[in-house]
Amino acid sequence: MSGRLAYLAFWFPPSRASGVYRAVETVRAFRERGWEVTVFTVDVEYLTDMVGSTDETLLDLVPSGVDVVRVPLPRPAGTIPDVRAVGRLRATFPSVVEKAASIRRRFASLLRRRQGADAFDDPYIAWIDPLVAAVGEANGTSSGPFDVLLATGNPFSSFQAARLAAASLDRPFIVDYRDPWTIDVFDGTRAGVGRRAEAVEAAIVRDAAAVIHVNEPIADAYRRLYPGAPEKHHVVVNGFDRESLRPLSERPADRPIRFGTLGTINAKWPLEEVIDGFEQARDQLPAGSEFHLAGHLGYFDRSAAEIEDGFPDPSSGFRYVGSVPKRDVGDFYESLDVVVVLAPGGPMVTSGKIFEAAAQGIPIVVVQEEGGGARAIVAGRDAAFTAVPSPAAVADALVAAAAAASAQTLDEQRTIRADMDRYERSRALELLVKLSEACRVG
Amino acid sequence: MSADPVVVRSLGEAPLVFGDAVVVICGPIRAGNRRARRLAVTAAAAGCRVVWIDAFDERASFRGDLPVDEGCAGGSIEWVSAESDLDTSLRGGRLWRLSDRISGWREMPMVRRRSVLRGLLGGVVSKLRRLRRLSRGGALWRCVRDQIDADGGTPAAIIHTDDVAVTAAWHLARRYPAVPAANEIPPGVLDRRADV
Fold first, then answer.
1. What is the reported pTM?
2. Are residues B106 and B70 located together in one domain of the fold?
3. Please, which pLDDT band fits residue B196 given cuts at 50, 70 and 90?
4. CATH class of A242-423
5. Which residues of A130-161 are buried (b: 16+ CB within 10 A; e: fewer)?
6. How many interface pairs between A and B have CB atoms less than 8 angstroms apart?
């Protein structure tokens, strides 16, 4: 069974934001099952100018036959078609006039919030109206109407746009929470996003045909928060892509151990503890052992310098090797003997990279607090070691993992990989397609 | 096509010869700088000569991001750093350190003391002005204005990419009233170039 899907994904290639792979693979899953897919995403100029974090190679990952509609996010400055039309005051004191305009906009936004029940605090709220209009416009084309609307968040303005567009088109909609909205992902308490946002989320969950989460602890928290329809909440884990797996091979016995981690490095990672832990462990590791850190430095280009400042000297055996294009991810893992995953937070934080890292088959060290979601994924897996974010615990885990790497056989790698196959992303996304098909029937 | 499609220099090094270039101006704002980069590369790729006047702070590790390796396809980019000129202009010249100013206070004649006090006041005001970023647009324009070669031709377009650059673009647009001036590449500018 197939249909026509409107997919609302603010972050989509060439963006390199964290949710992009899930978005691309979601599109692929629908295309492989014969759906027509129209993606509604933000304009490229917003990504290049305002966010400054793009990766053109990611465009190659978008499956063929997908329509991509780029809906510009309205920006404060807007277009000035002729600078001569700007008044002398603004031309002379542009910063002051822009500041005044910003205060005026904020005041107007406050007024709107007082008047409109659906207004809520979100930096991307201005995207809702043009997005709803774009979905409505595409719905009336020769391809026929959409069967289902699917929105991925954050930004959660996409959810509200899906709700409004679905209401106006009389179509079902599904929301895919890559992170919880009104629940704090780190401690499970209310996130303090404001009463209006909470009310809007309640309306979205009430009206949605299905609500998707990335792990069971988050789904459970939402079931408790909105007990009205617990069956509506489903889990679609992030999973891993088969192309990102290294070829299975035994490591040469005489090689020093190379640890490594891959992912978008951010300030919440327990990186300092891992650096110190590796330093402590070096005496117990084969001479020449190294720790390779790979990935973008932060989600925005402004974050890079601050994060890089914390890196130790390369003589410590710790190396930052830069970002790794998606097509080279398997090669990076092939260069490692032990893969290390760093994750903050508790049970709700699974970390998108854990599946890919765990499926490589080589020993893995997960650094996260007790009870963390990433630790739960590798619980019971062979050659998996966990550590709380403290240098001593990390050092112990690294040493144990190094010993496991030296002793591991090819058969053991195969067994691990077979066990982790259940987390392959296309399998995980089957549920999302099935739910959409069920909506369509309904 | 010139041998080196991307030329890097500072504002004060040589007069600004616009010729028929697309002039891109950005202030010391990161988003504006990114826009400037995109627009400059787009215009150069369409075969235009681009003069990119950049007041972005190069201490923010910008230099490495210059589009030197990106295709200019017959066009060229002359990247003119205005950051240091802007900084100097904002400060109104080099300020003496406070300790230098008041050393020998007792021996100073009254005229000199008054001068020092005025200097101190000026220093405070200058700092406040810098803090409030009130005059950045004007300062950038003054830096640019003083460097324009009057006989250097008429630009094909004037593009500003952030709010601070509005001032310079506004004055420049009044100097060349027939030239399209906007915050994106004005329609027809690239087509016109492609026809040549």
1. 0.76
2. no
3. very low
4. alpha beta
5. bbbebbeebbeeeeeebbbbbbbbbbbbbbbb
6. 72
